[in-house]
Give the backbone structure.
Amino acid sequence: DAKTTQPNSMESNEEEPVHLPCNHSTISGTDYIHWYRQLPSQGPEYVIHGLTSNVNNRMASLAIAEDRKSSTLILHRATLRDAAVYYCILREYNQGGKLIFGQGTELSVKP
Amino acid sequence: GAVVSQHPSWVICKSGTSVKIECRSLDFQATTMFWYRQFPKQSLMLMATSNEGSKATYEQGVEKDKFLINHASLTLSTLTVTSAHPEDSSFYICSVFPPSTDTQYFGPGTRLTVL
């Protein structure tokens, strides 16, 4: 599985946008970029995923670099409930569903 | 979205005993489920892939005789930690990968403490 690199931690102020970066320089052409987050003492939850084009959903936006070697998860207005560990994961499409988690970015949100 | 439940949510047991953790897919049938383990302040580690009607596939370094997985129906997978020891104390999380989707849904986790 291709590897991702994320900052260990980031801080944000409430109601401000947050940009969470992820580097994946060894990404292959069939790897999808997935983002999950884990709130304290809970199982992870799906946030968003994409292949080449930028993606938007009700939770967040995903901006993918043109060369696909990096991506950024964007939370448009951080709330206290967004404080979590965010994981950027590469997964080859239709390859059994296995997710290999890296260390993730711990996001703290200040009121 | 899909709902996955786990039971129990937490369990405390004595060293040497066995503990069974259940993972249920409530919204759909799942031929494949995954089991993860997470130690404090660490990331999730995939333990095994649970396949309905067949043997589980274990990740390298995970003892299959210690962590018994049974996926007897399309909505239930169980993980049994046999002869548990304090180092098995961890947060165990299951997930379901619905067919025809590219999203994995996780259970709320089970916190195991072995005394």
About this structure: The interface with chain A takes residues 1, 4, 32, 34, 36, 43-46, 49, 91, 93, 95, 97, 102-109, 111 of chain B (CB under 8 Å). The CA atoms of residues 21 and 64 of chain B lie 15 Å apart.
